[in-house]
Specification:
By secondary structure, the chain is mainly alpha-helical. 77% of the residues lie in helices and 2% in strands. The protein has a two-stranded antiparallel sheet with strand order 1-4. Strands 2-3 form a two-stranded antiparallel sheet. It starts with a helix and ends with a helix.
């Protein structure tokens, strides 16, 4: 019980409960109901789109990297699916096209970071601009020289966005399954151990014979494909491939992962905390809209949440570094005395 009470996830659950209580009381004072069916559906729809970004971003953060091109790659993936379906290409083939194209850009990100040794922020920022331009070029190519949003209908693709099971979107079940699979992968498999070691102690990983390049490239490809899946669910729900899809989600996955306890410095965190962090972030954003707060203020406060998560992470890393330095100085001092 003591271990549970001291865990990071227990603290996050308490924060989530407090948020729900605050917005429930606040909305009731305004004659509104925070627990309305529409609100719950909005939260679920929001976490479906941002959840896959959170998983991809979380895995990369654990390995000591980050990808700010995920939202633009997801938008390109949706554009590929939408334009293909609009031209009567079967949905499964359009989905496969999306996976291949998004995966290739993830491969590019991973190559720039792990082989060319670019800082991940710089490399993915450059790729983000490239992908954004190519999204418009690709749209022009499929639409007679005009870059435009595309409405499409395909039974296979729409199944992902329109199907409900017991009143809950099917995407929510798929997302939870992904969180479980990735959580087990990180905590129980050799590849998960490699991720944690590469992010937490690269030198030890090298001495242990771990191929860090292979691990990092795999995670960038994985993150880009998950971004494409995020775009798939948004497009499947709306029936439209938009050129600015996921544009408001550029840092959402990173924010949710860091709120959930995944360290910006790498080597720390898991999918359980990331899921709760995702729920906290989306509950906060939708709760603010329910009580009628100006959307610009919602964006501002979301930025404050990100800064808060980064500050806590920075202080924890600094404290751990100081503690380790003191321990080493003490060991050297004792070794000198024994000599």
């Amino acid at each position: 019980m003591k271990k549970i009470l001291k865990s990071k996830n227990f603290t996050l659950i308490l924060i989530l409960i407090v948020l729900i209580a605050v917005f429930s009381f606040w909305s009731s004072q305004l004659g509104k109901n925070f627990f309305a069916t529409s609100t719950i559906k909005n939260v679920l729809q929001a976490i479906i789109v941002t959840g896959f970004l959170t998983i991809g971003a979380g895995c990369l953060l654990i390995s000591g990297n980050m990808d700010i091109a995920m939202s633009t790659i997801g938008c390109l993936g949706l554009t590929v699916i939408g334009n293909a379906c609009a031209k009567a290409i079967p949905g499964p083939i359009a989905l496969l096209m999306m996976i291949v194209i998004c995966g290739l850009f993830g491969l590019l990100d991973g190559w720039l970071v792990s082989v060319m040794k670019f800082p991940s922020f710089i490399a993915t920022m450059g790729v983000s601009f490239i992908v954004k331009g190519l999204t418009y070029v690709y749209s022009q190519w499929w639409n007679n020289g005009v870059a435009t949003n595309v409405n499409f209908k395909d039974a296979f693709i729409q199944w992902f966005g329109k199907t409900n099971l017991f009143g809950i979107p099917i995407g929510a079940y798929i997302l939870i399954l992904f969180f479980v699979i990735y959580g087990i992968m990180i905590s129980k498999t050799r590849f998960g151990m490699k991720m944690l070691l590469v992010g937490g102690n690269p030198q030890a990983a090298r001495l242990a014979g771990i191929n860090a390049t292979k691990v990092v490239i795999t995670l960038f490809v994985n993150g880009s494909i998950l971004a494409g899946i995020s775009g798939l669910f948004q497009g499947a729900r709306l029936g439209m491939a938009g050129l600015t899809a996921l544009s408001t989600n550029q840092f959402t996955g990173l924010t949710a992962a860091m709120i959930g306890g995944i360290s910006f410095g790498g080597g720390i965190g898991g999918m359980g905390g990331a899921l709760i962090g995702l729920l906290i972030l989306n509950t906060f954003q939708i709760g603010m809209s329910v009580v009628g707060v100006n959307p610009y203020w919602v964006t501002t406060f979301s930025g404050i949440l990100l800064l808060g998560a980064l500050s806590i992470d920075f202080l924890k890393l600094r404290f751990a570094s100081t503690k380790l330095a003191r321990k080493r100085r003490k060991e050297v001092k004792e070794a000198g005395k024994n000599a």
